[in-house]
Structures are given as structure tokens and as C-alpha cells.
Amino acid sequence: MSVLALALVAPLASAALTSPSDPPTPTPGDRVTDTSQLPSGWQKSGDRIVTYDGDGTGLHVLVADAADAYTWHTAATLSEPGVDTDQWIGQTCVTGSGDRAVVVYAPRQAVNDQQGFQQGAFAAVVDLADGTVTKLPELVSLAYFNPGCGDGEQAVLTRPEGEGTQLLTVDAQKGELVRQQTVAGQLTSAVPFGNEIAAARGDSLVSVDAKGATSTLARTDGTPFRLVPDAHSGLAYQVPAGKKVQVRRVTSAGSDKLLGSGALGALAVHGNGGRVFVTGKDAEDVVPALPKSWRTLDVPASAEVSTTGDLALTSVGNGTEAAGGRKAAADIAQSVGIDAVVPGSDTAFGFRVKPRAPKGNQGEEQSPALTDGIHTNSVTPGDDDPSTSTTDPDRACAVTRNDPKLQSLQPSTAQAEWATDLAVQGKLDVRRRSGWNGSDLPSYTPQGLFPSTPLKGGGRVPAQIMLGVLSQESNLLQASSRAAAGESSNFIQGGYYGNAGSVHTVNWAAADCGYGISQVTSGMAAADTTYTAEQQQAITVDYAANIAAGLQILQDKWNQLYDKGLLVNGGDPQYLENWWLALWAYNSGFNLPSSTDASAPWGLGWFNNPANGLYPADRKMFLSSGYDDARNPNLWSYPERVLGWAAYSQQKTDPATGATVRAFTVGDWPTGNAPDAQPPHDTFCKPTLNDCDITKPRKVEGSTQPEGPCQRDDFKCWWHQPVSWTDCTTTCGTEVLKYQATDPEPAVAAPHPAACASTLPANALIVDDVPNTVKFRVGAASPCAGEKNWTSRGTLTFTFGSAQQNGATVYPSKIDFHQLGAGFGGHFWLTHTRVPSYTDSVVIGTWTPDRKLGGRAEVMVHLPDHEANTPSATYRIDVGDGTVVEKTISQDTGGTNTWVSLGSYEFKGTPSVSLSSATADGTGDASIAWDALAFVPLKAEPTDTGTPSPSAQK
């Protein structure tokens, strides 16, 4: 591909377009380093150049001043919370003083939708000196001519309004809209002109006064465009004429003059503060006679010109703008390449600018255009009141459940094996970009956060040992079992609520804070400072980070035992069976020797000793008799189960054939028979070493422990000796790697893709189940980028059933409360229905829009394609004046994401819709979900006789 063609695909600054055969060139910087190339007097020049570039993090407004040797800085980065896009687009104009920019910006996908293009862009005023951002309360057109600046501090924004055009006048100095007018017809290229507004309408230039009355300034042979006011009551503009373009000037008195013409695309007019610049390589020849305050510049017609015309930008871009939807890393701004020239000379500069939003970037705050002045995130998950927060502010564990920004991505078995194989090789260095899986985490690598610990004595952990651990700890699940591979939900956890399996008990004092696929527990209590908050969140969100942390724990156990001389079969870590004692310690810990009593028991606890009477003495190796063993894993000790998984693997269904196959690669045994290397059950039972004697079965009176060989009343028959039971070179298993260090992370497609785009009418008022600040991500991917065509206009708040337990108010209703990364927009909530008498289990969710409604509107509720099947979902619709209507529907959609009507009603204020998990038929089996809800204004009363009529229920 030629450089020209590449530039058409991705208009990256040519400073970055180098061929491997090109000689090395200095890396462009963010300023002019050789100031001798600048025009004389640059130190005192007031020249300023303003440009912009967008990526997934926002639209960056970039500024450079001649007096600073054109050092670039980011005045602001504009975006909207919760909008999924791979690129923000827009345009700017600079006010007459050069101190402010008026900016129109929108997500890239807005251009794909007529409503979004015409009335879906945001607008803001940016102070170019201090970065203050004032977002304006109206949505506007994304057309190229929006915004239009005059020769002072005012600008005009436009948007179609029915059969007319609404003109919005902005006072940039005040940062506010000072006038709104609707004018008949389609007006384009509107700019302030004197005390009025000049715009194109059809084949005319018109002037619009303060009352909205129009008068004609000039008749033309085509539609005027690119209007620029000059300093002498004149207006520069262009008019297409066949294959040519005219440059013209009209005065406020109506005097219109042709100044010159050239090939279409070869000339352009630009301007700022009353100065007009005609650009084009032949501009000086084709526009020979210029009015005062006009200049021709021998630069490309498309160049962006500085405020005084001393610098022109010929190329601006980050190289990903036209990359076919390729998503830039979340919250990582893409470096921008800029090419510039000094008009009237051969001097050219190349810049490379890294956008950095000012501290406390106001550009990320939600636009008032979305809220009618009411902030939609007034109540969000994470608020401190546990009765309404979806999270658990009163928890004992470090990371809360039900925070939409801390969802765990469910890995496929291939991903779990990939992460394990790379981790044991010390190569799990995949880059997780900031915001990974919708979190607020900064960029990291799994083994950057949790480095692999060298084993004492050398060697490393075999992959199958770690895979066996993951299988036993979590069934290879990082997230709740409700989540399929590629889907996100709450982390899989055991005793988070300390409830011992009861959905009516919360006992924080008994909480077991095991997180994710490795069930990392150490360091995960709220009061534990072993890990940083970033590490704790990564353990929660990312299966790879969790595996890296789990591996680190296992390595630490090996080293701890190594220091005490507890080696197996000579201690070579390449053999799977030699990890027996480390597995034992991983699960139940290691009791250190007493510093005061040399005779006190120490070592590995009795629970996982294969000689323990908890396990049947005639058992064979776990899974060696078939997968039915997995129905009763309690018949084997922890190390036995792990070695069983390592030898036989978990199972999965092959999606291509439907056949049941191994979920991961198993180890290799020289005899082909893993049981050959298993230790006898009494291997760790020696009367002289740990008071264990299999020849003397013993039952401790009053104990719940079964009869067994431990001869101590306290069951501290703890093992603390090296042991050998086989020649590993002839019988023991060894690792088999499927993935090498250079292999990429396997891809996975979730079976329940989110419903990204709204199919409702454009005027629908959608209230999503999470705030706009929540980002839907699947790992680094943004599935809704380019598709999402809506913004949430309200809140969903919850009330949770409580109980008094142990002298405190707790919320058992949260135990069975869940989130899933699917449904509308990539998130919904669910629980299971119960009869109303179970008040401690009842959850009530209420959707409230951010504005009042007047007139008739249809209420639509979105139902997800899974985990919602109650036949008795009763919605209570408050029409705004206290009148409540109930509508009961089934949430079972047959496996599709769909909008369902709850009927149409006459609204008289701010409405709300509530849904309770309490149902007359609730048994804890049927799931009930809260996804998005919408109000769709209707023009006329429908004829649907099935619509329920309101009844007063106050």
C-alpha cells in the first residue's frame, strides 16, 4: 500500500509514517526544538493553534502557543460517562479572543443514525488557558459546520427542529446559552454576524435577527458554505459552481462580491477574530485582490490555521481513526501525530503529542443535556447505606459483591489453561489496559502485580498441579456459575456472608473471603493489608491475575516447607506427586513450630492426612474409576483430589461436535497409569513422628471425629517430616504444556451477547439498571462500541430486606442478589422470588426517570435472554400523581432479549415503576430480573383495549 493510500485509510501525521527501509529519523516531540525556524518575534507573538483528535477516551482539545515555541498541551478531553465507543469525534471553533474554544463532540456511531447525527451531539465551551469546561444543556447537530464562531466571544450551534432549524447562541465568556430561536427551513453554516446570525438557506445567504426574522443578504448559484465574519462588517463565504468553487464576500448592507475562484477543493476560507485566511497552493493567484484583514496562505486548502496565520497544520491523527472499529485501550489516550508548516516558507515541523487531560478533568462529567439539570447518578451502587446500596458497606471481606465496576470475567477452560501454562513459565505478562472488564483499575500485567516466586531448590510448579488446584477450588470458575464463559458477574465465593449456606443468615464474623478461580483467601479480608486495593480488585476481576496470585501462594507454600526440610521423594518439583505436601499446606495451612515448646506438635494438619478416618480406606485414586467420583469428592483429601484432576482433567462439551472431552491437558505418567505413583493412605502416619498408628484405631470420647489412627485427643497428629514412597523417575507424572509463552490469550464468545442498541422509538426515555458511568467491557473489548445509540435518563434504586441478627441489622436479601454482564446494555440484576412473608429476602427495585412526564406514554421493560423466568413479575406503575397501576407479566422470553410493553398511561409528573421479588408463588426457584425500563411518549391514545386503566392505590 502506498503512503498516500495509507494516509487515506488512517490520516496519521507523516512524522509517524516511516518505512522499515527509511533511515532513522528523530522521534517528533511536542514542541519546536529548533526555534531558529520560527518566524521572527515569536517570543512575543499572540499566535495560537487549536486542534482536536479523538479516541476511545474522549475528544482531545489540543493547544499550542507561538510564545511557548508551540508546545502542545491538552486543554480538555471531552466524553460522556458510560458511553461505549471506540472513538469520540467532533469539531471546534475558536472565539475572537483566542481564549476559548466551542466544541461539538459525539461518539463515532452517532453518524450511523439520523437522530444521533442531527440531534445527538454534545456541546461545551473550553477555556484554553485553564482547561475549565462548561458543558451546555442542549444536544446539537454533528454537521461539519457546527459550531460556528464569530469575530467576538459568541458562537452559534444548530440542530434541525421539525421543518425548521433551531439556532442556539452561545456566550463563550459566560459559558451559557443566551438565545434560542427556531427558524423555518434548513439553515446551515450559521455564525454570529454583527448583532445577528448569518446562515445559508438554500441558494441564499440570510440574516436572522434577535426575534427570528430573516432577511436575504445575497442570492447565489449554489448553497453557500464555510462562512467567516471579517473585521469590517463583511462575511467571507464559498459557493460551489460546477467543478469550481467561488470565494465571495458580502457586507451587512447586502453588497456581494466575487473575489476569485479555483478548482473545487483547492481553496478554502478560514478565520478567527475578524481575520480571514484563504488557503490553497494557488490561492494568491486566483484570489489576487483581498479586502482588509484578509490573507492568502500557500498551504493545502484543508490545513488548519492558527489565530494569526503564522502556522498551519497539514495533518493530525493518531492512526486508529479509520481502523474499522478497532478499539483503543480503555482510558489510554492515543498519541497524536501532527504535521505543521510555516506559511510562506519551506519550514515544516513534526509533533508527537500524548493527550493528558488536566487534573480533575471536567470534560468527563455528565453533560446537563442528558439530565435536564438533574444528575442521573444521585444514587449509585456503592453508596454507604446498606439498605439501598447493592454493595455491602458493612462487609468483612475486602472487595464487595454487586458493584457493577467490579465484575469478574468468566474464563473459558482454554483461557484458564492458557493463563496457567504461561504463569508457571513466569510469562503471564499480558497487558491489561486500564479499565479492563469495566473496572477502574489502571493498566497492569498479572505477573507484574503478582510476580512468580522462584522455588527454593530450583525448578517450577508443573502446570497440571496448578490446573488441579483451580479445578478443585472453583471448577475453573472465576465468576459465579450463573455466568457463562465470556460473561461477567460477581466473583465466585464461598463464605463471603459467613452464612453457612443459609439465605437468611449474615454473620460477618464467620466470613471466609475466598475469591475467584484460585479462591484466594489470604490477604482478602477488609482489615488485611497484605495486598493493595489494586491487587485485591485485580484478584476479583481478572482470572489471570487471580491465577498469578494463587500460583504465588502455592510457591510460597513450597518454599515454606522446603525451609523446614519437608520434601517428597527427594524434592524434585518437576514431578507432580512431589507437590503433595505443598498442596496440603495450600488448602489447610502449615502450623509453625512453637518458639517456646520444642515438644509441641507442628506441621501439616490432620484434616488432609490420607490416613484420616474421614476418608474411606478402600478408596482408589480420585477419578481413576471414572467421573462418578466427582459426585462425592468428600471421599478424598485435598491433595488426592488435585492429583486426580491433574491426571484425568475436568470435562467439557466440545461446541463443534457436542462430544464430552477433557477440559485441559493432563500430565504424563511413564507407566501410563497415574495410580502407580499415589502414596499409600498410611504414608503420613507414623507413631514415632506424629502420634498416628493405623494399627490402633481410636475414637475420642465426646468427639464428632470418626474412629481413626490419630492417638491424640486434640487431633494434632501433624506431619512435619520429609517422606518418600516411590521412585519418581519411573512412576511419577510430569507436566505437559499446551501453550507456550508467546501464545496469545484464547478468544471466547459469550453465548448471551448483550443487546447494545435500542430498538425503541428515538424519543424513548430509557432508564437503565446501572448509571451511565458503568462501562460495559468484556476483558479489553467493548462489545457495544459502535452500536449503543442511547443514554440512560434516570436511576434504578433498590430497597433490601433486612433482619436483626447478633445485635445488628443485616441484609440477607443480598445473599441471593446477583448481577450479570448481559441483557440490555450489558448488565442486569436478579434474585429469586419468595413469598412476601420472607421479608428478609425481599428486594424491591424502582426505576425513576430524571424528568417529569406529561401526557400519554407507553411503559416498556427490557427482559434479558436468560436468568429471568418468573411467571409473576408484578410491576407497580406510579403515573406521577400518586396513582398506581399494577401490571403482572411473565419474564420468560424463551431465550431472547426483548422489550415487553406494560401498557400505556396518562402521566402527570415524575413517574416511577417498582418491581418486588415477593410473589405469591415464590419458592426461591424462579428468577426475577431488573434490566432497563423505558417511557415512550405517544402522540395519540392507542386503541389497544388490553391496556389497564389506572386505579387509585395510594
Main pleated-sheet profile: 5 strands, antiparallel
Mean of pLDDT: 88
N- to C-terminal distance: 71 Å
Principal-axes shape call: elongated
Derived from helix and strand composition plus strand pairing, the structural class reads mainly beta
Instruction: Order the strands across the largest sheet as they lie in space.
Output: 36-41-46-43-44
Strand proportion, as a percent range, falls in: 25-35%
Poorly predicted parts: 1-25, 322-331, 371-382, 943-954
The total count of helices amounts to 12
Q: From the structure provided, what is the oligomeric state, counting identical versus distinct chains?
A: single chain
Helix content: 10-25%
Return Rg in Å. Answer: 34 Å
Number of E-state strands: 48
Layout: helices, strands, pairs:
Elements lengths: L2 H7 L38 E8 L2 E8 L5 E8 L9 E7 L5 E8 L6 H6 L2 E6 L5 E3 L12 E2 L4 E8 L2 E8 L4 E9 L3 E6 L2 E6 L2 E5 L5 E6 L5 E5 L4 E8 L2 E8 L4 E8 L4 E5 L2 E5 L3 H4 L7 E4 L6 E2 L6 E6 L18 E6 L6 E6 L54 E2 L3 H12 L21 H4 L13 H12 L13 E2 L3 E3 L16 E4 L17 H9 L1 H21 L16 H9 L1 E2 L11 E2 L33 H11 L2 E3 L6 E3 L24 H4 L37 H4 L33 E3 L26 E7 L2 E3 L2 E3 L7 E3 L7 E7 L8 E7 L3 E11 L9 E6 L5 E6 L8 E12 L2 E5 L6 E8 L2 E5 L17
Parallel strand pairs: 21-22
Antiparallel strand pairs: 1-2, 2-3, 4-5, 5-6, 6-7, 8-9, 9-10, 10-11, 12-13, 13-14, 14-15, 16-17, 17-18, 18-19, 20-21, 23-24, 24-25, 25-26, 27-28, 29-30, 31-32, 33-34, 35-48, 36-41, 37-38, 39-40, 40-47, 41-46, 42-45, 42-48, 43-44, 43-46
